[in-house]
Amino acid sequence: MKVAIAHGSLTSSRALELVLRSERYELAWVEADTRRVLSLLASSAPDLLVLDAELRSPTSAELTRAARAAGATVLLVASDSLQSTSIYDAMQSGAVDVARCPKLDALGDVIEEAALLAKLSTVARLLGRSHHKVGGAREAAPVDASPRPLLIAIGASTGGPNALHGILSALPAELEAAIVLVQHVESSLVSDLASFLQSATARRVELATPNAVPKVGSVLLAGTDDHLVLTARRTFRYEPEPRALPYRPSVDVLFASLAQHWPTPGIAALLTGMGRDGARGLKLLRDQGWYTLAQDERSSIVYGMPKAAAELGAATRIVGLDDFAPAITRAAFDLSLRKAATPPSSRRR
C-alpha cells in the first residue's frame, strides 16, 4: 500500500513517517506545506493519504475531496480531540476513519502509535478487499411472540453520513417503521452523527443502548466500537466478538442477527463504503424474504460495499441515492400486503 503524509507540523510528520517506515509501508511523499498537497495528489496520488485533521488552508475536508477525486483513501490524524467540527466535516467528505497522531518523546522515539497502527491495518485490509466470517447472536432465550413493527436496517461507511441524512429527510412521516443504523465511524464521533441525523427527521434519533427495542418512529444508531446485535429476546446488545473484522461495529454482524431473530421480513439497505462489510449479511436477509437495496455506483462516494452486495446477488434492487426513500416506501407497502395475505399460523415465531 502506497502511503503519503500531509501534515502541517514537521514533528508530527516525522512521527508519522517513522511509524510507516517501521511497518514497511511504501512511502510516496511527505508534505508539510499543505498548499502543495493538491498538486501532489494530481501528479502522484497514493493509495492512502494520512491527513492532518486540523488543516485550515486548504481545509482537511477540501483535501479529502481532492484525494477522493484522485482515487486515494483518506485516514485522518488528530493531535488532540477526536470530536472537532473539522474532523466531522472531513468524515462527511469521504475520510474513512480517524486516529490520534503519534508523538515523539524527548529521545526522538515514537510513542502513542497503537491507535494509528490499528487503523492502518484496517485500511490495508479493506484496500485488499479482505473479508471475514460473519458472526451473530448465539443465545437460545425464550422468544417474545408479540407483534413487531416493520424494521428497516441500513449499513454505511465512507460517505454514509450524508447519504443517511438524505434518506431520513425524504422518508414520509406516515411510514410506520423502526429504523436501525450501523455507520462506520469513530465511536467518539457517533454522538455528533446522531445530532446531524436528527436534523433530518422528526423521528427520534438515539444511540442504541443494551436492551433497546425497535419501536415505530425511532432511529437507533450503533454507538460503540463493539458489534450491535439483535438477541433472541428481540432486544439489542453489544458484543465484542468477532474481533477480527476490519470494521467495528460490523454491518454483517447486525444483519446476520436480524436474519436469525427478527420474526418477519423487513427492509435492509447497504450504502456507500469501502470493503465488503454488509454484503453477506444482506444476502442472508434476502434469503429470509427481506426486501434488500444496494446503492448504485454513480451515487456512491466509494463503490465497495454495495458493489460486493450486487456481486453476491444480495440486493432485490440497486438504486441511486435519490431513489432510496421512494424504494423503501414502496417496499414497505409491498411487505404489508404480503403480511396481510400470509396466514398467522405460517409466520415465524
In short:
The protein is α/β, with parallel strands linked by helices and 349 residues long. It has helices at residues 10-22, 37-43, 60-69, 85-92, 114-127, 160-170, 190-198, 251-261, 279-287, 305-312, 324-341, and strands at residues 2-6, 26-31, 48-52, 73-78, 97-100, 103-104, 110-111, 151-156, 178-183, 204-207, 218-221, 227-230, 236-239, 267-270, 291-295, 317-319.
Plain-language structure description:
Strand 3, helix 3 and strand 4 form a beta-alpha-beta unit. About 5% of the residues have low confidence. It is built from 11 helices and 16 strands. The chain folds into 2 domains: 126 residues, Response regulator (Rossmann fold), CATH 3.40.50; 196 residues, Methylesterase CheB, C-terminal domain (Rossmann fold, 3-Layer(aba) Sandwich), CATH 3.40.50. By secondary structure, the chain is of the alpha/beta class. Helix 3 packs parallel to helix 4, helix 8 packs parallel to helix 9 and helix 9 runs parallel beside helix 10. It has a 7-stranded parallel β-sheet, with helices on both faces.
